[in-house]
Amino acid sequence: MGINRTKMRWNGWGWADAPDPLSGNEAVWEWMASELGMGALMLTPAIPLEEIELPASRLSITALNGLAEIVGEEWVKTTKSDRASYARGKSYHDLLHLRAGNLSDAPDAVVFPANPLETLEIVQACSERHIALVPTGGGSSVVGGVTASPGKDQQGVVVLDTTRMGRVLTTDTDAMTAVVEAGAWGPELEEQLNEFGLTLGHYPQSFEFSTVGGWIAASGAGQQSSKFGRATRWLVGAKLATPKGFWTTECFPGSAAGPNLTDLVLGSEGTIGVITEATVRVQKKPQVKDYRGYLFKSFADGVTAARRISQAKLPVAMVRLSDADETHFFRTFSDAQKKKSFGRSIKKAIERQVLKSNGVPDRPCVMIIGIEGHQHDVDICQKKTAHIAKSLGAMAVGKSPGTQWYQGRFHGPYARDPMLDHGLGVDTLETSTRWSNIANLHETVLAAIDKAMREGAPVAGTHGIVMSHISHTYVDGASLYFTFVFPRDLEREVPQWLAIKKAATETIVEQGGTISHHHGVGTDHAAWLIEEKGPVGMNVLRAIKTELDANGVMNPGKLISQ
Amino acid sequence: MGINRTKMRWNGWGWADAPDPLSGNEAVWEWMASELGMGALMLTPAIPLEEIELPASRLSITALNGLAEIVGEEWVKTTKSDRASYARGKSYHDLLHLRAGNLSDAPDAVVFPANPLETLEIVQACSERHIALVPTGGGSSVVGGVTASPGKDQQGVVVLDTTRMGRVLTTDTDAMTAVVEAGAWGPELEEQLNEFGLTLGHYPQSFEFSTVGGWIAASGAGQQSSKFGRATRWLVGAKLATPKGFWTTECFPGSAAGPNLTDLVLGSEGTIGVITEATVRVQKKPQVKDYRGYLFKSFADGVTAARRISQAKLPVAMVRLSDADETHFFRTFSDAQKKKSFGRSIKKAIERQVLKSNGVPDRPCVMIIGIEGHQHDVDICQKKTAHIAKSLGAMAVGKSPGTQWYQGRFHGPYARDPMLDHGLGVDTLETSTRWSNIANLHETVLAAIDKAMREGAPVAGTHGIVMSHISHTYVDGASLYFTFVFPRDLEREVPQWLAIKKAATETIVEQGGTISHHHGVGTDHAAWLIEEKGPVGMNVLRAIKTELDANGVMNPGKLISQ
After folding, report:
1. Residue B335: is it exposed, middle or buried by C-beta count within 10 angstroms (0-12/13-18/19+)?
2. Is the complex ipTM higher than 0.90?
């Protein structure tokens, strides 16, 4: 029954009472400082909510009463805690603002409709009154997709939280589809589907704090997209509450009746309506999950293996290839975390010897191949993928790295808050391109981020770390995901980040990558969308928006910049 | 270098000099008459072009000169033969008009641009002058998709033939994509791709006389869609000449940068622009093709087998299941054609005995399973599909029915003209639905067509034949294709057809099918599109059309009824 945002960190990731995974581990911070060419890290705690003043509400009593009449008084929330929790998403950029006590984007109210009809009434009431409406599920956008800012001539912002609508309504095990309410968050959805032996299988890193509707609106991808597909592949049809009324899109298995308008809902980012229900493809819950590691001598060899696995249409769930720097970083990070463990140096020396005798260089590239399904099918696929990996000189290193990755697959975002508490900046960005351009895009984006981090460093001589991996593979190409860590310039945190973001995105656009593989557009990529859609395409997008949201109240400034 | 329409039958199917496949075979006509409850068939030849007068051209000399300035005088054609050839598509409805000498829809000119730039200039010239522009590739639409009729306040119609643009421009064997000119017709495209060992694998029944651009514009499907995909699966990106300029859509392997606008080109039916180029997924030319037949005791058993094969994700190219009536019809049709062959009755008696001892009823349902690829993979897939078929009580009847189907896979339309010459009506229509609704949709549509044919019969007691097959299967459902033959009411040919069409389509809509699985919308389905898209969706479609084609010159009346 919904994600209770007031139990989550309003200015960070996860539950408010979750333990700090790096607490008391000074070794990690020492190692991190040395990696960045710094002496020591400083403590930079966030400003607590108590010390922050929120802007006064912009909504009239009449307007608030109007909302309460629709959803009931208890479902219109206006407390400081609520308004702060819904001010922004979960990007590094968002956290900079929130941690600095900038809550200028706090919404005036948060409403929780119980059903599609209440949702429609809220949408239409906001449209009539020219109040900006920001739909949100888990609120985990990392591209400014849920920033609660008003558009031109709009005097207030209401956030619409969909998470009271979280039920699986029907399942059709002949068609292998389910009709679900869009506010179902990851664990809630899977729990219900699992009861029927089914799964959607959509596990983004944000799984614990994101919803079906959000996955569709942002056109997202789960980590196991090779088997379960991204939202574009599992969405069959959707129901939206738009200012023009309900819109239920087509739901046929193969139709030639004009353009498939369901596709316009994917990536619509709340700008044309609120997704209230979705028909989605489900699969049988896999019997076994087999995740294994391989060490490649070079990134190029790993890329070739990933391409061959994809083009051989082997039924893998995931092929994830880290570059040498990422492989090194997470290995040494993990070592730094476990520094106390006895006998480690002997074990490591033996390990190094084994790797050396197998021709693995000092800085290999790790690939995790995940396969899910029936034991028999998994075994066959495992043998075939191992064969391809080995044919490219990889050394199989067994299930342990796979299990370790799997267990930690949602943990990444939890490490960010402690890093921000230690004067560091950390962000990620992602793209995709055709196979023949992967090497070029990988190199040029790494170089652009590295250069921008050096140029923006607060102290000369310090620098950042940037690393990359492929995590989603297709017949024609793959995604590239970049993680970068750098010493924060406390005097100009936002401009420092903006410069890095700009350098990276411009390079991506110039070098033939998409501005986003699964994070979306939001506000942060909106300026570059025209490079991808072209001026004619942007006008098509605007025409659709204008048709459905003539008053421009739906999530203003997202997707299409104003 | 283009399909030369003047060498094709202007009022029928295929090359003008192609032999009549049923010529002199009176046995077939006798059999057909008896199947329809008729005494004998009469001869009803089409009115020859020489006897038909075309309406005068509506275009001014200035307008014609304007077109000639763009493409060169020799590429603006206005002869009677050209105008007649481009008046309409290839539906039964079209042929009724053409054979009756109704050429009121003949275009005023046909232009043949050599490249995208000339195409754009034609599009923009027509938009400025308010002349209707009908883009065409092979012109094989069977839903009125290329009828050359003007819209409101438009004084003339120009048909734009894309087939001078037929080259494969580039191939990327890393991404397994190719950039092709959209006017490439089937054989021309495959010939070029085959030189690189590649194939698109898109083989609709109209393959010989249709183009890549047409396949995209109509959101079509080839017969081997399970392996090669329908246009929605193989199209990566497109370039269009629109009244607002060139529009090149996104072309990334997985992008979350807003709605994928390439999807709006699929099924756009020439109403927003002319597709000039496309990036398409290609595959390696298959080493072997294995097509085999199975006889099922019931349609329901066959449907279950088709569903299991699809949901087991076996890499088949095609699963095609005829119902008992279709199986019977083509068997007896084939027998009637070969009546002279000696010893047939003894052979048939033996055959019947073998079938009986295998539990196959008198009226079984034949399934053709086609598998294409490497020998080893084909063998494995063949065993698995055979296992599923047999587990549902089917009898394997070997390669002969498969080979026979494969060899005749483009022949269907050639039998229509002789049937029309013999006083018969013949049409096909198709839909798709989820697996759990297949049996219901199959039965109700058959009943609706049968009833409408009886009600429209020219002589009491005569009736039609209607039969059906599944030819495209998906994880969630399948297509249903209906063929029906009936005695034509020569006094009211068009109303007779319209009544059948209406009865079938209304039943499809009521019973949860799509109005088209691969024929498209055109003019013939336009009235029902709102049932599928909803009023909000229709307004979105109109908004897109208005944005790109403000003067409404692009293929007026198609997709969106006026």
Report:
1. middle
2. yes
